[in-house]
Amino acid sequence: MWNWHRRLGALGVSTGCVLALGYADYRTDFDFDLFLFYALPVAITAWGAGRIAAVGMGALALVAWFCANVLWINPYASVFYLAWNTALRCGWLLIVALAVARIRADLDRAQALNAQLAEALSQVKQLRGLLPICAWCKKIRNDGGYWEQLEAYLAKHADVTFTHGICPGCRTRQLGLPRPSP
User: 105: which DSSP letter?
Assistant: First the structure.
């Protein structure tokens, strides 16, 4: 999964960014809105530390924004507008946190599947092209021009092992025995 160093690093960087953005939001004028930038530390946390940590970082970002607005004595016409803006920002940060965490999880899953596929492909031997075979004895001509038994050739080139038996038709023709009933 993810190592702890990367998680702690993402959480540390993101927390510092949220606190710096909260302070900058508090120090700037009401007309200069910084809220869009709160999505960056949430996305960093989602990428580096996972979904739950990203939702927590989104909550911290929302609290930082809300405190900057309340301490700043934001001139909202009513409490409803403050609640509405807070709810919209909460939804925005939640969407960013969940979307980036999902993208990261999908990427990790795809990398794991690619590793499994590469492992499976490394174990596959494949025959390609024309395979010269004798029409009577069924020997195969190898790359060196020598004729070898079908079983030996396929065992070398296709990673298979053969067992031998006799089919009902050959049993009747070669041994003169009656066909077994099914």
Answer: H
State the Cα–Cα distance between residues 155 and 162, nearest whole angstrom: 8
pLDDT tens per residue, range 45-74: 999 999 999 999 999 999 999 888 877 777
Give, to the nearest 10 degrees, the angle between helix 79-122 and helix 39-49: 30
Phi-psi region of 126 (alpha: psi -120 to 50; beta: other; left: phi over 0): beta
Residues written for the chain:
182
**Separation in Å, CA 10 to CA 17, 41, 53:** 10, 8, 10
The label of the residue with tokens 């016409």 reads: 77
β-pair partners for 106: none
Condensed to tens digits (0 to 9), the pLDDT of residues 16-28 reads 999 999 999 888 8
Could you tell me the pTM of the whole model?
0.64
DSSP helix/strand/coil, 49: helix
Helices 4-27 and 39-49: crossing angle, nearest 10°? 170
Cα(25)–Cα(34) distance, integer angstroms: 6
- Which are the contacts of 18, defined by CB distance < 8 A and separation ≥ 6? 38, 41, 57, 60, 61, 64
